[in-house]
Write a structure and sequence with these properties.
Distance between the termini: 49 Å
Number of helices: 0
Order of helices and strands: EEEEEEEEEEEEEEEE
Largest sheet: 6 strands, antiparallel
Number of strands: 16
Radius of gyration: 21 Å
Structural class: mainly beta
CATH topology of the largest domain: SH3 type barrels
Strand order of the largest sheet: 1-6-2-3-4-5
CATH class of the largest domain: Mainly Beta
């Protein structure tokens, strides 16, 4: 059992039958009133962000979370299948537990967060960026690079990404996994 003095970014707590991660917090005290802690909490199960205020000294239930490396195997109508590289155990996750499932490539290593006591998979954390090959895009016009115009492109996993006009079919690009946005051209 922890108190509000133990609150820090990334701490996971159990509240109202949900597991919440602290995104940010602020200790406050006004005048002669009692101190309190304002927090922004993100639900590990639904991804929803909410704000809550706790009085100073309030008891909170801390949850221990384990981060484990898994390799993406395949997806089907049941969900997305991953394998632990050390124990070869397989885990299946639903699409709602993954932020950008279209950016998952076979063989990609990801982190899956588990509730340590209950051995339940909570969420998947993708790498910061991924390099993929453009499989289809309209050719850019020669000399049309003065503007900051973007065009749609389809990468090898089927995800659609907005890219600059100079990117052609067959090029490798770096994509931000959090936003799904084009970052830069990359080498194979």
């Amino acid at each position: 059992m922890a108190t509000t003095a133990d609150i820090r970014n990334g701490l996971c707590i159990e509240l109202n039958d949900d597991i919440l991660s602290i995104v940010e917090f602020q200790h406050s005290q006004v005048g002669r009133g009692a101190a309190f802690v304002r927090t922004r909490l993100k639900s590990m199960t639904t991804g929803r962000v909410q704000e809550m205020t706790f009085p100073s000294g309030h008891k909170i239930n801390e949850v221990r979370i384990e981060r484990r490396k898994f390799q993406f195997l395949y997806s089907d109508e049941m969900g997305y299948h991953f394998m632990n590289n050390e124990t070869y155990d397989q885990v299946m996750l639903e699409e709602a537990m993954i932020d950008n499932p279209k950016l998952l490539k076979e063989g990609m290593e990801v982190d899956i967060l588990f509730h340590a006591a209950k051995e339940i998979a909570l969420t998947l954390e993708m790498p910061q960026w991924v390099i993929m090959q453009v499989t289809y895009t309209e050719p850019g016009l020669k000399g049309d690079t003065a503007t900051n115009t973007l065009k749609p492109a389809v990468v090898e996993t089927g995800a659609e990404v907005r890219v600059p006009l100079f990117v052609n079919q067959g090029d490798f690009i770096k994509i931000d996994c959090r936003t799904g946005a084009y970052l830069e051209r990359a080498k194979a």
